[in-house]
């Protein structure tokens, strides 16, 4: 008797320490996708000490601190920046479209579980002026493969443009990384 006739068994098992060791050994990659299924995207992220943008993600997120502490900067609906500290061994649930900026050192690691993006969904990356908090720039990406590292691509575009880093309200230039 088959209890679950439509269930296809594909149950990947990964060695998280091996993946953290790999990410520690290279500066070329800061994320390592574990799997990308229709309803579940899972990856390991190595800290980006330079992170300053706020990511607006159309999916729910679970962030688990594998090694080190996460300082998750986020913006309230009123635009106030706050910080949630997620100690090693703890996890945080985040609803969709919360502007967030995960900040943790390069020797720290997060396990992140999200949903793959649905057709038409767009990820947004916002930078704010360090002087007056005005929106400096927005990058948008359709993320259909997390292996392309959309965060790094957004940063390359932002840091590569003096215009994007210059506040149109007060003239402050966001310092380079």
TrEMBL record:
This is 3-hydroxyanthranilate 3,4-dioxygenase. Gene3D superfamilies: Jelly Rolls. The keyword NAD does not apply. Catalyzes the oxidative ring opening of 3-hydroxyanthranilate to 2-amino-3-carboxymuconate semialdehyde, which spontaneously cyclizes to quinolinate. It is an enzyme of class 1 (oxidoreductase). It holds the Pfam family 3-HAO. Its EC number is 1.13.11.6. InterPro entries: 3hydroanth_dOase (IPR010329), RmlC-like_jellyroll (IPR014710), RmlC_Cupin_sf (IPR011051). It comes from the Bacteria. Keywords: Dioxygenase, Iron, Metal-binding, Oxidoreductase, Pyridine nucleotide biosynthesis. One of its GO terms (molecular function) is 3-hydroxyanthranilate 3,4-dioxygenase activity.
